[in-house]
Amino acid sequence: MTTSTNEAHALEAPRSGRIAPKYTRNGSGRGNFEMLAWLFMRVSGVILVVLIFTHLFVNLVVGDGIHAVDFGFVAGKWANPVWQVWDLVMLWLAMLHGGNGVRTIINDYADKKATRMWLKTVLYVATAVIILLGTLVIFTFDPCPANAPADLIPDFCSSL
Ligand code: HEM
């Protein structure tokens, strides 16, 4: 009989005794950082549900839905400070939430201290670069680039 809890294929729980003694950690705590990080995942998760589903509904369902998404559509949205702030908060929360989630996975599954350190270094650099570049794009975006074909840019460009 095949069951989904087939022992042979089950993934071991993290840090479940398979770790060689030389990799055991001494549990030096960092105040209540991990508790705050745990709380942040719950709070940001709830806020992300609202941000992401509104984002998907507005972009893919309202009006012509997905068929309306092009450069002009994005430019039109970012001409409105509400959508700039919406996308900024969504970017920051998704990246910090996702980054902190992957940090937890690395801490749970990478046994060697050096492996954890390198994986987290890559993670933190990638997270910071994406947050910075995304933030820069949201606030420096030019909706009416010079010499762009009129049918690709938003209507309000012609009145500028
Ligand atoms: C739609 C709204 C979302 C909700 C309600 C949500 C909720 C959560 C919660 C409660 C956790 C903690 C799980 C635990 O500690 O066992 C979690 C973990 C995680 N989330 Fe989200 N999340 C959302 C969106 C996202 C997004 C957009 C990303 C990626 C950018 C993401 C990536 C992760 C990762 C990588 C983890 C760690 C998984 C793990 O610990 O096994 N989540 N999420």
UniProtKB/TrEMBL annotation:
Task: List where the protein spans the membrane.
Answer: 39-62, 82-102, 122-141
Q: What Pfam families does its record include? A: Sdh_cyt (PF01127)
Q: Name one GO molecular function term.
A: metal ion binding
Q: Which GO terms describe its cellular component?
A: membrane
Q: Where in the cell is it found?
A: Membrane
The source organism is Arthrobacter zhangbolii
* Name of this chain's protein: Succinate dehydrogenase hydrophobic membrane anchor subunit
Keyword terms of this UniProt record: Heme, Iron, Membrane, Metal-binding, Transmembrane, Transmembrane helix
Q: Which domain of life is it from?
A: Bacteria
